[in-house]
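Exercise 7. Predict the joint structure of the components listed below.
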Amino acid sequence: MLSEQMEDYLKAIYRLERDGEPPIATSTIAETLDVTPPTVTSMVEKLADRDLVEREKYKGVTTTAEGETVALEIIRHHRLLETFLTEKLGYDWAEVHEEAEVLEHHISEEFERRVAAALDEPEVDPHGDPIPSEALDPVDDVSATALSEHEEGGRLEVARVRDRDPAELTYLADAGITPGTVLTVDEVAPIGMVTVKLESGAEVSLPDHIADAIQVRRPESERPEDGVSEA
Amino acid sequence: MLSEQMEDYLKAIYRLERDGEPPIATSTIAETLDVTPPTVTSMVEKLADRDLVEREKYKGVTTTAEGETVALEIIRHHRLLETFLTEKLGYDWAEVHEEAEVLEHHISEEFERRVAAALDEPEVDPHGDPIPSEALDPVDDVSATALSEHEEGGRLEVARVRDRDPAELTYLADAGITPGTVLTVDEVAPIGMVTVKLESGAEVSLPDHIADAIQVRRPESERPEDGVSEA
DNA sequence: CTTTTGAATTAGACGTGTCTAATTCCCCCC
DNA sequence: GGGGGGAATTAGACACGTCTAATTCAAAAG
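Solution:
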């Protein structure tokens, strides 16, 4: 699992990228998170080791697709929580931030889903900020069931990998599967597994529970920008 | 603040005390929390340093009144969360434990109050276990307002200190205020402060926000046992 | 093409929570 | 009342996230 701190760094870097110009400087991150620059350097090294950010020494960092996925996930948690606290628990909208800031790191995906459902899949939080959607538009799950139905054989682009377990993210990344990867589903091989073929020709077999985390779309479809700003 | 781990140790020790015979052995705690005995020894030393447990070397530990307060607080969080997840988010009662186990360490007192209110101050959780009450029976708050009204001048016993910030707990403990302490409210001195007099004759002035955390009752009143078992 | 200077990194340290291996202690049994 | 044996503690290590102080780098200024 990613530590709470790693999630915070990723979230901060992602936000800074949207405001200013990437790459993001060490000192900027340090100020944002209220830590010293050496601390940022060492944390950023760890993030880079896990391919969550791209790092150029002395220059700064940018998030990778994978890092961005994590950041969006946390931002989604945050905004969903703010909405929930306001709508369902009667918090004043001004006081939800602190609570959400903590809880965003500790809720499960199950909790996220249930809260979103209870709120009727909201698209903006009480501050009016857009809540990053769980699924990015024309999206399916690469899973035995979902795929045997309609996309089998077709070219698909990985849109997101909805998984917060870095062991699995790393596993997928090592196998060459990250957001942006184009793949085809080869067959719905042994029970409980899915086999996909990458553009490189490599074939990868995945257990269903991992395949389920991969969200895909048709390669050429437009990608409506996901508006995401300050929380 | 207490770490998540410290809270877990306290909760475990508290529970073990209720089952078996105190003092609780190092090895018992180790098994419960799935850590090694040396780890328990070192953690227990820290807990003892903060007066959250009483320790007898080579014998074991028992919780102090202060440690018990923390344990009960966490257990209350846990059971309130289980109830909330079940009632309001449609979780199956069998699957709430994991989620509550994590969240119990991260919700604020505000969240706790609002959840309890939303559930109509429940007294048992979905497993049927009693939810430790926020206030112990005939209880008031030692705060400027609460006290200027009815208990001014009377003898009061400290029932609980509802505060999870150890800096404040330590501050109070150092001042001689812990559960069981008998005190009188001297006057509602400068604005935003409360002055209390201890049996020792010492006078302590407290800012309202700390005084608010102290819950008192009349000294001789019965203390109906707070039924609390497994979660 | 130097020099300067401010930012970034390295070096070395610390507190927390954990571990394994070594040692010490308590207490029961003969 | 001395041994043994099992439990507990000490010793020493490590990963994490953080810090300060020292060093190195890069890019702008001359």
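Discussion. Residues 221-231 of chain B have pLDDT under 50 and may be disordered.
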